[in-house]
# Entry
Amino acid sequence: GDSVTQMEGPVTLSEEAFLTINCTYTATGYPSLFWYVQYPGEGLQLLLKATKADDKGSNKGFEATYRKETTSFHLEKGSVQVSDSAVYFCALSESGGSNYKLTFGKGTLLTVNP
Amino acid sequence: DGGITQSPKYLFRKEGQNVTLSCEQNLNHDAMYWYRQDPGQGLRLIYYSQIVNDFQKGDIAEGYSVSREKKESFPLTVTSAQKNPTAFYLCASSPPLRTEAFFGQGTRLTVV
# Structure
């Protein structure tokens, strides 16, 4: 079945550092790919998405490019802030028929220190 | 404001009791989902529903039950058959023909 593997955390950075969180996937078809963010004690918020190969999703300074050849969707940000501290989840959705179940990675905890 | 409302935010129950978690959405979404989150485990799908009066088991449905009598509502019952019910439960919904899901704020269930 479909699966998502993302780098294990925790990741600790200083403010203004460069961020990369790796994500690779396994899927039989052509899934859509997502990054979600979860702040402490809250639900998940969609951060960005890409629906086909070579698409780049971007939001709030975060970017990720759908790489079909390497089955990857790595999250990057050029300069992190303390407010970016959260858990980040990579996810994919099956694209067959009307079934849009999401499959998630295990999450990566990011802590940004001032 | 449109959104997904889960209640309560915190729930405590004695072992062996059934408990029902509420999920309501006013986004007019057809599909709704229940996920369970445990530390270091990511999110795992419990049940999902594509339309009213229809739902399917997810990856970890044992010990849980759901109903979908109204488009807006998708309650989850954690039964006494669920061996390890203490977790953070997240409800989500998605609109037709779109793949991303929108999440509620979650319910933290603690069984003592």
Summary: Chain B touches chain A at residues 4, 6, 31, 33, 35, 40-43, 45, 48, 50, 58, 90, 92, 94, 98-106 (CB under 8 Å).
